Inverse folding.
């Protein structure tokens, strides 16, 4: 029984083919439901707003991104040097996770995990990150 040219006689007795279902229905037990009666409710979409003031707040940004939660990063109340360090750190986290970073306003950024679509307000065009 070597090669692709095996005959029916060579296969006979090696395996028995049993159909999984009849022509009319799938096999089931009495209380089995093939489909749920209702679609499960979707979890509400959310994002976190973080207003950073110290570099220690940068870890929180990374933790949310790692759990696939978008972060609205507000650097407007941070000192310029601290804001730059946090933005550099956040850029590295975004790059490392393959996420996206979108500028919303001066010193305000949306850090979007993989799979999050961000549409521009007027055009509805999804920018590439």
């Amino acid at each position: 029984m070597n090669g692709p040219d095996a005959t029916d006689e060579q296969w006979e007795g090696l395996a028995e083919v049993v159909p999984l279902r009849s022509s009319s229905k799938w096999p089931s037990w009495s209380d089995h439901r093939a489909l749920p009666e209702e679609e499960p409710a979707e979890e509400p979409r959310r994002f976190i707003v973080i207003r950073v003031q110290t570099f220690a707040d940068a870890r929180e940004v990374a933790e949310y991104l790692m759990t696939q939660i978008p972060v609205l990063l507000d650097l407007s109340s941070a000192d310029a040097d601290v804001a730059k360090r946090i933005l550099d750190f956040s850029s590295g986290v975004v790059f490392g996770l393959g996420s996206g970073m979108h500028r919303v306003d001066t010193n305000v950024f949306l850090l979007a995990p993989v799979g999050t679509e961000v549409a521009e307000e007027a055009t509805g065009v999804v920018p590439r990150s």
